[in-house]
Design brief:
By secondary structure, the chain is of the alpha+beta class. It has 5 helices and 9 strands; from the N terminus they run H-H-E-E-E-E-E-E-H-E-E-E-H-H. It has helices at about 20-30, 35-40, 95-100, 150-170, 180-190; strands at about 45-50, 55-60, 60-65, 65-70, 75, 85, 105-110, 115-120, 140. The model is unreliable at about 170-180 and about 190-194 (pLDDT under 50).
Length: about 190
């Protein structure tokens, strides 16, 4: 059984929090930003090649007193002087999907639409496990009961991945990532779609 201990370790270091189009829209709305371009200008997101060399947006971790951390992590000291962290997006619709799911991870087969679910430690040595940590690659778990809003977000993300996969099928040898990258950027910022 997992219970978050609010240590903030999963929000520090070399973690990469990849964002989907809904994440970007919600985050921009929450912050009163005009879209993902404004989030980029504020230094909150960057675009870089991720899985399959597709350029996608992710949160930009910043260097601070506790090392690299998510820009939405609020670090503080507890009553015993230990560092703890809480997400300032917690409890809002702006919290990215991957963060809302943690420590669960979904592996989606785009060809069949089937899902496999795993418990994956947010970080090695995460104190949130009452029993032995799952292995770094995760351990399979039954499909969770999800509230309708979360299911809708997961279905939207699956559609985003299918769009990117279809672009992958169209990529020619002279354009290894260009079309996929443009589609990912356009999907992540609907204002850019002609």
């Amino acid at each position: 059984m997992f219970r978050c201990r609010i240590c903030g370790e999963c929000c520090r270091g070399d973690q990469k929090v990849w964002l989907n189009p809904s994440d970007l829209q919600r985050l921009a709305s929450h912050l009163g930003a005009a879209g993902s371009g404004a989030l980029e200008s504020r230094g909150l997101i960057v675009r870089e090649a991720g899985e399959h060399d597709i350029v996608r947006p992710r949160l930009r971790f910043r260097l601070g007193p506790a090392g690299r951390s998510c820009p939405f992590l609020v670090n503080d000291l507890d009553d015993e002087g230990r560092l703890w962290g809480r997400c300032s997006l917690h409890g809002t619709s702006a919290k990215p999907l991957v963060c809302r799911l943690a420590p669960l991870a979904r592996f989606l087969d785009l060809a069949t639409g089937s899902e496999e679910w795993f418990e994956i430690p947010p970080v090695i040595g995460c104190p949130g496990w009452d029993e032995a940590d799952p292995p770094p690659e995760g351990r399979p778990v039954p499909s969770p009961d999800l509230d309708p809003g979360l299911r809708c977000d997961l279905d939207g993300e699956a559609a985003y991945f299918r769009l990117l996969a279809s672009a992958d099928d169209e990529v020619g040898p002279g354009d290894p990532v260009g079309r996929r990258s443009n589609l990912a950027a356009d999907a992540a910022d609907p204002g850019r779609i002609p």
